[in-house]
Write a structure and sequence with these properties.
Layout (H helix, E strand, L loop, with lengths): L3 H17 L4 H27 L9 H21 L4 H15 L2 H14 L6 H19 L9 H17 L1
């Protein structure tokens, strides 16, 4: 629980700077992200203590990373380098993954396909980092919002946005 104190302090500082300097949208954005991460961390910590469940299940994390990177890379390659477009590329990767892989792995592969639908300007490094980030976010949140539509696409979009902001 103590690890949340520096995160909370950073949130307050980001909001304070963002609100005192006009036009500081970037700091405001990172402040909102930090507050969100702080809230999620606090909620998951309290929920884990209440239910005596582990905070993080890392079963098959390396295999999941390989699936995420493979799905995103294949979709990106079909989309950009073969020029098939994002919809056809996602179908050519996502549908076979849904039939071949286990259900949990197929969900991750299909989320990674959404990362591969990224525009060609992003580049391979951004797609690679976004897919690894997607796997980490998916692993952390796989039990949240189960059955809610749009969860995989939202996770993919968030990971691509973060990767583009970090890697340009």
């Amino acid at each position: 629980m103590l690890f949340l104190i520096p995160v909370g302090t950073a949130c307050v500082q980001c909001f304070d700077q963002a609100l005192s300097e006009p036009g500081s949208v970037c700091k405001l954005f990172f402040g909102v992200v930090l507050v969100g991460l702080f809230a999620v961390g606090l909620w998951s910590k309290l929920a884990a203590e209440a239910h005596r469940k582990p905070l993080l299940k890392l079963d098959g994390f390396i295999v999941h990373n390989l699936i995420a990177v493979g799905g995103a890379a294949a979709s990106y390659w079909l989309n950009i380098h073969l020029g098939l477009g994002p919809l056809i590329a996602s179908g050519l990767v996502g549908v076979p993954a849904g039939h071949i892989l286990k259900p949990e792995q197929a969900k991750l592969a299909y989320a990674a396909v959404f990362v591969g639908m990224t525009a060609g300007d992003a580049g391979w490094l951004t797609v690679l980092m976004a897919s690894i980030l997607l796997c980490a976010i998916y692993t952390l949140t796989r039990e949240w919002c189960v059955g809610v539509g749009g969860r995989l696409g939202t996770l993919a979009a968030c990971s691509v946005i973060i990767a583009v902001l970090v890697f340009g």
